[in-house]
Each structure stands twice: as structure tokens, then as C-alpha cells.
Specification:
Number of strands of chain A: 0
Shape of chain B: globular
Structural class of chain B: mainly alpha
Radius of gyration of chain A: 23 Å
CATH class of the largest domain in chain A: Mainly Alpha
Distance between the termini of chain B: 17 Å
CATH topology of the largest domain in chain A: MetI-like fold
Order of helices and strands of chain A: HHHHHHHHHHH
CATH architecture of the largest domain in chain A: Orthogonal Bundle
Oligomer: heterodimer
Number of helices of chain B: 14
Number of helices of chain A: 11
Radius of gyration of chain B: 23 Å
Distance between the termini of chain A: 43 Å
Helix content of chain A: over 70%
Number of domains of chain B: 1
CATH class of chain B: Mainly Alpha
Strand content of chain B: under 5%
Largest sheet of chain A: none
Number of domains of chain A: 2
Helix content of chain B: over 70%
Strand content of chain A: under 5%
Shape of chain A: globular
CATH topology of chain B: MetI-like fold
CATH superfamily of chain B: MetI-like
Largest sheet of chain B: none
Amino acid sequence: MQSSKTTRIALLVYGIVVIGFLYLPLISVAFASISKARYLSFPIKQYSTKWYGTALQSDTVLELLMTSLKVAIIVTVISMIVGFFGALAFARYQWRYRTLFQKLILLPIFFPQTVLGLALLMWFNAIGIIPSWHTAVVAHLVWIAPIATLIVAIRAYSFDPALEEAARDMGASTTTIMREITLPLLMPGLVSAGLFAFLLSWGNFPLSLFTTGADSTLPEWLYAKMVSGYSPLVPTLGVMSVFGSFLIILIALCLSWMVRSIRDSRASQNL
Amino acid sequence: MERLDRKLGIFSALPLGVILLVCFLAPLLVVAAFSVMPERVFDLKHIPDFSAYSVFFQQGYYKSLFWSLGMALISTVVLFLVCWPLAFGMAKVFGKFSLVLTIAVVMSLFVSENIRLFGWVLTLMKGGLFEGYLRSITGYGFDSPLYDTPIIIFGLVYVYLPFMLFPLAQGISMVPDDARQAAADLGATRWQILRQIDLPLAAPGILVGSLLSFVLAAGAVAESKILGGQSIIVIADDIESAFTFGQNWPLGAALSMVLILIIGVFAIFGVSRIDLDAIMGRKR
């Protein structure tokens, strides 16, 4: 059914308004980060980048960045491995408890994250583990590994099991099939799962809040400053964190574009 | 072949299964165990007395639970109304623009939610982006809408928009165009098409989206803290203070159990009704 031109334009405008609405607060943060005044008030009278200088020279900031980065990288690697196998169990293999497994995965995603963090804190306490950034990795994994699994599963649904069966008929072992067929076919899904895992861990706050112990991640620090007294570094670090995320997305997009173009040029040479 | 599939299935489910068993289900059992312990203990070697649950009723903690659930309900309804036209556009009208929209919405998810909420504080506060510029241009300011109930609901709508939008769009894309076309040919009005074709056929998406937003909003805390300035105490906030300022783990655990049970009923109801194979596009 063709919708009328006015409906089309109205919906399009609405879509653009929603995007604007989603990003408006970030624009405010960006403006605030280049205000020179210690106590922010719009309209901004003097612009300066001095808070960026302060932030870059600060040891606290460096430590926050390093902790966030360490957690995010480890979470990414583990999520990709777990997500790879999880997705196969989710979408590819027919086994008895598959539907149960599919539903179990969804539960942590539905769960309030603050409460999950607290539950983990009690659990660590009960088994005698002292919280540090290591335990934050575990907390992030409980939420992020299922999401990574779902993302890889979308890819796993679309591949033809006949490819694996053909390899098996020709005598390939299970590990060879995994390495030569399953892994390359799921690769695009794995890469986007890794990207999601990194970014979600990098920005996550409710799970880190109770599970990092004496360490602190960047979002945690920002929250502490927001709730108790303003620091001019809050918008600055906020912008830096957002830029970090967008930079990584950009790099990922460039890399995937490069890989594709190299593959295309090779394919055309082989013809 | 089938036997091998079964073996490989169990083997590949193992890593995630173990993580969820040890780091999700086991902690929930610990919460349950703590919730029946006597007041202010920090280990489980005590005789259970269920006192924390009676505190829940005596000291008015049910009020914050009602606030949480009420605000979650309102924000879910608002989200549905806000997202429906957009989801419809993404599924049926936009074409290439829906990819742009999807990327823009997903990217916003990667920014820590407290930075985005803080951005709203900067935008809406007295002397913020809106009020500050309005006053410097026209000379008239307005009172900041911050630190009140509606702004918390606004924050919930803002933060959980993607969780309603994407399931809805997925649901609407499952409505066959033929059915809408046929209804239109038979003289159905737009309103009739919406009520008798779109809504029932998109029901799985509506269900998933509404449950997700409701459940997440019910457990949310940052919105009421950052935008609401604690003018309203939500249940997750009470849970947090019981653990931190109160140093009363059993109370915090009991409050968590109440929230977990309510959310759990919704989540399990929703999860058991959706067919993941169909939604995620199985081709076999």
C-alpha cells in the first residue's frame, strides 16, 4: 500500500526530530566542555579548551581511562569467544534444551542492572572474593555475553548447514569444520558482536557501580561527580568518552570497508 | 548426524551456560538467602527470621515500589505512542532512511546513559542551554522543569526509546502489505486498518517492546537521581541506600527480591510467549 506523499514527509520529519532529540543533550555537554568558566551557565561567555588540557594531564583521568579500557578489552575478547559458541547452540545445532537455553539467555538482559550488580557483590562476598576491576569484568560479562550471543546468532541463522555437512561427508573433523567453515562464515557477526561488547562495556555504569571495589571506571567517576557537586571536568570527560566510542566505530567501519575492497580486488584478479 | 548435533549443542552452550549459572543464577540465590537473614548481618550463618520483609510493609518501602511501577507504566505507554509512527516508518515507509535512523539510534546507546541524562540537566537547568539563551535573547526566562516527577518520566522515555522502537519496527515489518492493501480495497478506514490489521499482527513486537521498556524502567535509578534530584525515591534507589548508607544487606536483599519477583513474572511471561526462531529470522 503506497502511503501518501504528505504522510511520507511527515514521518521523515518526525524521524529527524527524534534523532535530534536523542543527540540534543550531547550537544549541551559538548558546549559545556569548552566553556572557560568554572561554574557553567549559558550563554557561554568565553570559550577555551583548557579543561581538555587539564584532563589530559591528570593522573586520575589516566587511571580511570586505563581501568575502563582494561575491562572493556577483556569483556570484548571473552564475549566474542562465548558468543561464538553460544550462537551455535542458540541457532545452529538442534539439541534438546535449545529453547530453554534461548530463554535463559534473555533473562539477564531483562534484569535491572543495579540489582544485578548488588547481587554479584553479595555473591562475591559470600564466596570470599574482594571486588576490584576483575569482578567488574565478570559483572559486565553476565549482561554483555548474552547480547553478543544474540548478535552472532542472527548471523548463524542465515547460514546453510549443508556447507558443514558437505565438509563432514568429505571427511573433515569437527575442529577443521569449525575453523575452516563455521568461523569464517560467522566472522561478520563476531566482529559486530565484539564492537557492541566493547562499547557497551566502555559506557556501562550501573553494573560497575557496586562491583569495581576500590577501582573506578570512567562512567562511575562521572556519576559520582554529577550527583555530588559539579566538576568542570565532567562535560570534558563525557565528551572524551563519547569521542572514544565514535572513533572506535569509525575505525571498525573503515577496517571492514578495507577488508571488503581488498577481497573484491582479489576476487576480480582471480577471474 | 542428529547425535552429533546434540553433542555439539551441549558443548557449545557450555561456556555461556556456566557463566550464567555461576554469575547470574547463583547470585540470585544468595540474594534470596540474604533476604531472610536478621537485620544488619553480613554473612549467611544466622537463623533466618524474615524480619526484612516486615520492614518493607512497616516503613513504607512499598510507596517507592509503587512510584517505580507507576512511572514505568506511564513511560511505557508514552513510549508506545511516540515510537509507533516512527517504527511504522522504519518498517514500511522509509527505505534507505531506516538504516540511517537505526545507526543513529544504536550509536546513541553507546554513550553512557548518565552522560546523556547529564546533558539534559545542562539543557534544561536554569541558566542551561534553553533557558540561558532564551533569556539572553528575549529577556524572559522560565522555571526549570528539573527535579519533578514529569521530568523523570521524560528521562525514562528518552533512555529506553531504542528498547521500544526496534521491537516495534520488527513487529510491524511482520504485518504483510497484502493484508493492509486488501483491507483498504474493501473500504476500511485508516483507523480500522490500524485497529484490526496492524495492531493484532504486530502484537509480538508490541509485547516484546512494552515488556522490555517496562521492566528496564521499573529497575531504573539514574533518571530519578540525575534528573529528578531525588524528589522521588524509586525502589532501586532504596535498594542502593540499604546497601550503602544503611549497611543493612538483608533489607536491601528483601527489597531486591520484591523487585526481582515482579520483574521476573513479567519477563518470564513475555519470554515464554515469544518464538525467537521466528523473530530472529530462521530460514529453515
